[in-house]
Amino acid sequence: MADECEWMKLPIDQKCEHKVWKARLNGYEEAAKLFQKIQDEKSPEWSKYLGLIKKFVTDSNAVAQLKGLEAALVYIENAHVAGKTTGEVASGVVNKVFNQPKARAKELGMEICLMYIEIEKAEPVQEELLKGLDNKNPKIVVACIETIRKALGEFGSKIVQLKPIVKALPKLFESREKAVRDEAKLLAVEVYKWIRDALRPPLQNINSVQLKELEEEWVKLPTTAPRQTRFLRSQQDLKTKFEQHQAAGDDEEGEEEAEAPVVDAYDLLEPVEILSKLPKDFYEKIEAKKWQERKEALEALEGLVKNPKLESGDYADVVRALKKVIGKDSNVLLVALGAKCLAGLASGLRKKFQTYATHVVPTLLEKFKEKKPQVVQALQEAIDAVFLTTTLQNLSEDVLGVMENKNPSIKQQASLFLARSFRYCTPSTLPKSLLKPLCAALLKQINDSASEVRDAAFEALGTALKVVGERLMNPFLVDVDKLKLDKIKECSSKVELIHGKKSSAGASKTAKPGGQGKVAPSSSSGDKVDAHTTKSGPSKKPSTSKPGAQSKKGPGPASGPGGKGKKATEIREVEPELSIEVCEERASAVLPASCLQQLDSSNWKERLASMEEFQKGVEVTDKRELPCQALVRMLAKKPGWKETNFQVMQMKLYIVALIAQKGSFSRTSAEVVLDGLVDKSGDIKCGMKAKEALTAIAEACSLPWTAEQVVAMAFAQKNPKNQAEVLNWLATAIKEFGFAGLNVKAFISNVKIALAATNPAVRTSAITLLGVMYLYMGAPLRMFFEDEKPALLSQIDAEFEKMQGQTPPAPIRRLVKRDAAEEEVPEEQDEEENGHIQDLLPRTDISDKITSELIEKLGDKNWKIRKEGLDELSTILNEAKLIQPNIGELPGVLKGRLNDSNKILVQQTLTILQQMATAMGPHIKQHVKVLGIPIITVFGDSKSNVRAAALSTLNSWVEKTGMKEWLDGEDLSEELKKENPFLRQELLGWLAEKLPTLRSTSPDLILCLPHLYSCLEDRNGDVRKKAQDALPTFMMHLGYEKMVRAAGKLKPTSKDQVVAALEKAQAIVPAKPAAPAKTSSKSNATRPSSTASVRAHSATTNDDTDAIALKNDPKKNKTAGSTAKVKPGIGKKVPSKPNLKDDDDKSGPIFIIIPNAKEQRVKDERALKVLKWNFTTPRDEYTEQLKTQMSSCVAKWLQDEMFHPDFHHHIKALTALLEHLESETEGTVACLDLILKWLTLRFFDTNTSVLMKVLEYLKLIFTVLSKEDYHLTDNEASSFIPYLINKVGEPKDLIRKDVRCILNMMCKVYPASKMFNFIMEGLKSKNSKQRAECLEELGALIEVYDLNVCQPTPAKALKEIASQIGDRDTSVRNAALNTVVTVYNICGDQVFKLIGNLSEKEMSMLEERIKRSAKKPSAVSTKQEEKTSRIQGLNPNAAVPRKGCDEVPSKLNQARSNNSHSTSESAPMIPREFQLDLDEIENDNNAGGCELPDLVQHKLDELYEPVCIPEPKNRSVSPHFDEIHGSTDSTINFVVSQVASSDINTSIQALAQIDEVLRQEDKADTMSGHIDQFLIATFMQLRLIYNTHMADEKLNKSEILKLYSCIIGNMITLFQVETLAKEASMGVLKDLMHGLILLMLDSRLDDLDEGPQVIRSVNLLMVKVLEKSDPTNILSSLIVLLQDSLLATTNNTPKFSELVMKCLWRMIRLLPNIVNIINVDRILLDIHNFMRIFPRERLKQMKCDLPTRTQKTLLHTLCKLLGPKIMDHLVLIENKNESELEAYLRRVTKHSMALSGGKIDSETEKGGSTIEDKESKAKISETLAEIFKKIGSKENTREGLAELYEYRKKYSDADIEPFLRKSSQFFQNYIERGLRLVENEREGKGRISSSSSSAGFSSPPDESPYVASSTSIPSAGSTNGEEVGPAVYLERLKILRQRCGLENNSKLEERQPATSLLSKPTVPTVASSSELLHNKLAHLRDSREYNQEPESHHPPVQTNSNTTSAANLDDLKKRLERIKSSRK
Length: 2024
Known about the structure:
Elements: H1 2-8, H2 12-15, H3 21-37, H4 45-48, H5 53-57, H6 62-78, H7 86-97, H8 103-118, H9 122-132, H10 138-155, H11 162-173, H12 178-195, H13 208-220, H14 236-248, H15 255-258, H16 265-268, H17 282-285, H18 291-305, H19 316-328, H20 332-349, H21 354-366, H22 373-387, H23 392-402, H24 408-422, H25 432-445, H26 451-468, H27 470-473, H28 482-494, H29 507-514, H30 530-533, H31 541-552, H32 564-569, H33 580-588, H34 593-598, H35 604-620, H36 628-635, H37 646-662, H38 667-680, H39 687-701, H40 703-717, H41 720-737, H42 744-755, H43 760-777, H44 790-803, H45 830-838, H46 852-858, H47 863-880, H48 890-897, H49 903-920, H50 928-937, H51 944-961, H52 964-967, H53 971-977, H54 981-994, H55 1009-1016, H56 1021-1038, H57 1040-1047, H58 1052-1066, H59 1077-1084, H60 1091-1112, H61 1117-1123, H62 1157-1166, H63 1180-1190, H64 1196-1202, H65 1207-1221, H66 1225-1230, H67 1232-1243, H68 1248-1267, H69 1274-1278, H70 1281-1287, H71 1293-1306, H72 1312-1322, H73 1328-1345, H74 1354-1363, H75 1370-1387, H76 1390-1394, H77 1400-1412, H78 1417-1431, H79 1451-1455, H80 1478-1482, ...
């Protein structure tokens, strides 16, 4: 009893540990009562029992154990810390409770396990239960199975993971214990309820009897899906709904059922690795000669691929071997076996097989020619399996390729494959662009002669009809007759789609998880739902990781390349421009009426008095009510900045500074005054005031923006005094504001202009400014000025020397935010600033030097050759100094050299890599993964000198890249995993050195922990020591808790050792490094400004001090926080019950406004005093931090609601926030960053009600913020927007709609350009819905804000967007296409340049979408309204929206107006005066509306009047040509000559003169005769710009753009005047096109802001030139230009030739309209010359076949248009045998005639007499035999030929081929010539005397269609019809030479044999033959007339300048006579 009394007095917790079981029993009972009494779930009482709960359940006394289990259950149910005990308690239950004989103990154990699951600890519980399945005690196994079954039945498959359960089931069915097998059977039935048929494959190998029993049980199950009946703590909303449904007694399914995950059997299987199991001789056997060996290899593979799921790997060699067997093996059995193997491989790999799919499909399709059923079936199975791994889009080209095959089996099987494939498609996966070519091919096949081909085509078309519906298919079936259409519809009705529409009510529910009707999981295509099923789980990690990663880099777009500091510091406050009436109205509210009236008084005293009143009005007005823009516009009113009285001007400048300091001064207001301030900066009396005003504006609008505007304006004015003073002001301003964010590149270009100035003061100021810049930039600045003159460079160096050793002064001014607080300039990290400067340095592209020879050397087997390669590479790097990151194949080769067996080469490679890091700078980071990580591998080398070299190289790389790239991913952990002691100790030592210097690290660092722990136990002492040294540095970033948690997975012995080491390391964890020193100097700096600013600054300083104190002593945190509040700080714990709070607590405001609190929080986050709000899933430390931050500014009761674990309280908190939003707007704004952070936490809740409430609140708050004109800070945006974007991928449409609405609203409170960056990050998500929604939002932003919104540049952004076109998800593809189409609607064809290279398939999709999405006028107006609605309330930083044509005059007009800059809405970042607006140019009918800038206006009427030459005078300036030249021609000559001037201004002025002449219709004709001269001058100027101006870095590129726009504008005007355009000659057009194409290909234009616009304008100009020029001249010029470009001249590239060919294609399309007006002879001569230089063999050797195709297309088109008569146009060609032209034309003509033969035959059948009608065959033979007999006799030849001619004319279908075959070739030729002569005699005489146009073709009257030879032959003889020129004698001479056998190799025209002419039984053939001679004679006549004309309109191409003399003609006649006499 004494003992009992003793333990009775002990506390409960001690009783529970007592050695006496009764004491423990009593302790458990009292503990259970205590646990029930504790109301607060976070009470400290719970923590006392944290370590005892395991003892409760594992008590050795059975009676006590029961009570312990009951107490443990109560504890787990109520304690918030119960989750920490999960693993040990669950393990105790499994091992110590489930084996108890008492049923009650077992029940309580199960309840404990289920309670742990309820409190969100399902994973560790399931892990322990699965371990219990391996226990030897069957009781434990049975209890574990039962618990799992119960958990699954109650919580459902979303909570309990099915994969490990299914994996364990087969083993349980093999158990010896019947109880285990029976329980396993019940579990299998339960699992089947949730996943149905997906369970069958994993259980297919169990005992057949068991399987049969299971099948019987499965059949009995209800068909309805099971429902979750027990819910997690976070699912209380679902529990409420479930209870309501239960109470109502209805069967309506809850929301949770609709979201039940669809499980694919494939996912439940374990992948099998088969590559290593292949026989060693597999590849040898499969290529063996004996088929039996090949069969053995295939059978071995077949056995392996039968595994339903295969491990991913490199299957390329296996696929290649199978492809060879299927394609080339002669044994059909092996072909079938190979196809089976391929099918198994595709089925086992699924999506991982996609890369091989396109390689094997063509082979499979071609092999369908085999007719054996078993082979065909195997091929069908293989191609179907391959299809399921990819998309029809990817295979469509291969299928279309075989649809034209001659083999009917191939066509049939291809169609059947399409039919089967269509069954898996949906309307969205079978778009019109894909359906169109497939339908076209199938429609051809329904007319095939083979019935099986027709049937297959009908089936495919019917399936397509079923999938897409009649509406989409009907356009393709227009030409199909009714019978065939009915057949297609009949086939359609029989088709059953794999996922067809179901009539049941559950159809919509089942469709959700699969998405868009994807294949059911049980089908073989289950992989097609992978992308969709992954969405349904509760985890959102994949979708949040990417945006989260983005926000690590900095707040929003501030982290963009090249502009990190700049974008962060800029606050682009742009407000709408106000009209003068509105300004007067607003100003009158502040200023007295008398003040406004006297502003423009003529009396200076009144103006001075007005200024004084103005000043008083500004001073007394409250800053919130100060209308800054209205006031400065009043100041700018006449006289404005032209004020002549210095006193008034000084007052005016002072008032500008006052307004900028006091009011909310926007950039729009600044633009009004900056020009005037710059103009006065050089004034002696007013200059100081002007510079003070500039400084005030810089404070209001940021120095970077102000400085850029001011410097640009100063150098536009050309006033040296102003330029010098502006540079001096900038030098001072940089010292005052700091260097952060300045656009260095822009300033350097202006400084170079200043250095070249003639005024010494400007040069001195520029050098002074360079000195200040040197303070911040250092040595790299000098590189920009190395090309300056030595004298100037020495002055710069002297200035730099003065600055050496000095440190930049602490900034005393900063950007001020005027709403009662100030925003600090973000910190600039040294490496970021350095990287920014590094980006500006000129770099060399060495990719062309990395040749294949060098690569081969580096990989050579001989080490000496490898060393030679490394030496060469080192030389290249030394010569280049700074290089671009593009180094081709070098990384892969150098990686191999790091593993070189020769250690000297390894060291040399490391040295080269060190060189490369220095040369490449920050860009080296893109090679970290390929080259950087292998450097770490070298740490494993046994030689210390090699390791030292590797360490040195690694440090040089890290210096350039930073540590982030190295810590991201698994690469570092994989290296640490290698059990190499050298590698481990070096790597750990390096990490221990680097990690303490980092303020933050990658979350992937945690992956290194397991390997770090193994290093602590390494056998090598050095490794252990290094690991111990590294522990504190890891803990510094990961935290003690996380590292202990990671140690929990170790073995018990290892765990104890590691935990002990962690405890030691905890005491010596280094502090994280503070922010750079310059940050503190910024924050502590004082700034002279207004009193409000000083107060704000002092508050900031105080806050800094407080923050430091809080950090040093966390215990004082609460007290310090409470000093700034009205209410005391919150207590330690938050009460869990709302009824404990008094109602009085809820009265009063919910927010406490603390001045500068928000700014202080931003500073703390930047200084890393608190965690940066950046995570994938929120951790407890983030929640605690937010709670602490809210404690000082949020009411206690609201905070309790906000951080309560129950979602109902969150809804109450949101309701309170909504109610107080209107009344406490100011407080909401003050705490906005905290509110948004809390809302991001709610995004991770799974409760839909909370999410909907959050979105409702967000919509309201952004509406209020927009009205308040509040703009989100970057800190607020970066901690909120990425998480909002994650929600745009939610499966619920309602949520997505709300999120999109909020994103639209945010553009009113945050810059659209910065929003763009965040949304771009959203594209990296794995959630396809999120990507699709993000793409749609990007499209909307671009449509509203134009391309200016794209960040960092339109090209980079659009490349990323375009990459989504190839996405596997249809919605993503469509969204990407729509976005690119939106860009196309803005910038036209320029989009193709911006999006970069796309695959042919993607490009075809895009082109199709662009065609379908052409803008309609109605759509434009609607979109314009949408733009207006979006732009209202536009935030200051948003890009200026694109202006419509009606709102703004053409950009060209702006360029030609003198005062265009004063009308712009806001000053853009780049000069846009000369940007071409092509839409307006094309529609510009008012030709007189365009003017050039600053041009002298001439009186053009004087050009037509005689001008008196003035007396000579000495002039200092060149006189204008109007005053010198007396005639119009000489005036134009003078102006045209000035167009080619090397001086840009002179050229622009000359172009302006010509432009004005061309634009006036009545004066444009004066340019006639000068067109060639003008065009020559123009392309000379283009050449000058290309070679000289663009290469001159000193020259301002904006000047070049002005000149370009003037040239292009002039030529567009010229080529719109058709009569003038026709005057351009061929040679001039050739040079012009050459210059324009070179301009389009000039890559330097891409670097200029207006460059793409220039290229677009050139494109338009080229179209005008092609359409308006003389068609013969332009076509000839293009052919010659193509010829020159292909001759591999120095300047031309393949792209050049391609553009020339594109021009030719455009002309080919125009040929049908112009064929009657072009000189075909000239064109064919040019083609002949081209084919002579480039014969067919040479063209075939070219890499590209485009030239061949272009040539063929041109000739085919001409043949098609002219027919056989084209042969008459070869007369200009002297020697036709030099090229293949004539032969080619004959072939084409013959082919076309053969094609048209059928039609002629049908006509003959209708009208003409046929042989069968008239005579018998015998009679025909007799008649023809008699005719040929006459022809053969010498006397009757003429008569026979005449009869033959008449006979063929009468009987067109007579066949004379048999008679001709018997004769010789000479006789056949003789008959052909004879028939021509007969025809000529009968029909030709009349034609000879007629013009050539009557012969069936026409040519221009002023151009010769024919020239007999290259020499001009004068007419000989009389002019009557009988006397003809020498060509007739030449023709006769040819005939006589043939008769005499003198053919030899003479240059006679090649003729068709008589067989080919006479065997054609059609009339046109004979007509064509007879017309040939007639046409030649007619041409001769024209030629004679042509040669009599004094001058030709176009010079004929001549090879010989000498004309044929009369003597030559006589000689010809004599030779003819001699030949005749010899014949006699």
